[in-house]
Request: fold
Amino acid sequence: MYVESLALENYRNYAHLSVNLSPGINIFFGDNAQGKTNVLEALYMCATTKSHRGSRDREIIRFGEEEAHIRMLLSKEHVRHKIDMHLKKNKSKGIAIDGIPIRKSGELFGLVHMICFSPEDLAMIKNGPGERRRFLDLELCQLDKVYLHNISNYNKIVNQRNNLLKQIGFDSALKDTLDIWDMQMVNYGRKVIETRKLFIAQLNEWLEQIHGRLTGNREKLQLVYQPSTEPEDFERALLSRREQDIRMKMSGTGPHRDDFLFMVGNVDIRKFGSQGQQRTAALSLKLAEIELVRQSIGGEPVLLLDDVLSELDSSRQNYLLDCIKDIQTVITCTGLDEFVNHRFNIDRIFKVTDGTVDFVNEVVG
Reply:
């Protein structure tokens, strides 16, 4: 599986862009704020419908324009697929696969598997739990259509329950209707928790090997899932918190409050780890994610590396580059110095300057 080409119209700082990618290693280099990350963001949107930076559609559309287009050509098992995405300022995005419009954006998940590694991921360990939940959801939604269904319904129910909690402040008789929402919230929430537990257990199988190699077997890294409530206790927890939820006007328990820890031995490195430990753990997590996706889909994902090489020391750079030789990879960086002393074949190089992309007839390897 690999992306053959990408075309953009009125996307961020690109009025028009058309690039053909290699199935191997593609590098987009240039100064900061020229548009390198925008290329990776567009690719990621074609896989997940979402920006890896958390941006809204209207923030992505080129200034002064009302809509933007992304077109991606994908080769998968010797069959070509075309993804068209139409972003609008004041309406939901339109998506078509092979010329056929889809009704729900979730239908796109699983057609192409993309893993994005950015400087924000290096900070995921010490940032808030929302980023860690987002990591779980984005990867699981690409791998598991049932999880996508369950988490989508769960989030809708939480929003509806929160709206009801606010209305109860004005009409206490509405309290009796909470049972209906609680029952649905527990139904979907239990399934979400169980799937997350399994996913983290599978990640841990790869993490132990990868983190051991990265640290010379000096450290053993494990993710420890911290659900807001256990599945069997969810219904009881909702009922016991009901009065507090009414006062706070929001649902205070459930998978939308989950988190997970990064443990090295008995040490929570979110709180007590060095910056080097945290970065190594984040790299281990991404490499474990690649291996788990390979195992799950029986093929290779597409890897997006958004200016992360400059954030890693030389040994971690080398380890990462050694791991991606068989994967279509799109890399952004400010220069090519990271690759000069590494026996690493680069298939295509593009220079990005102020919203224009030029193919560079030079291969480093």
Summary: The two ends are 23 Å apart (CA to CA). The chain is about 40% helix and 25% strand. The first helix runs from residue 36 to 48.
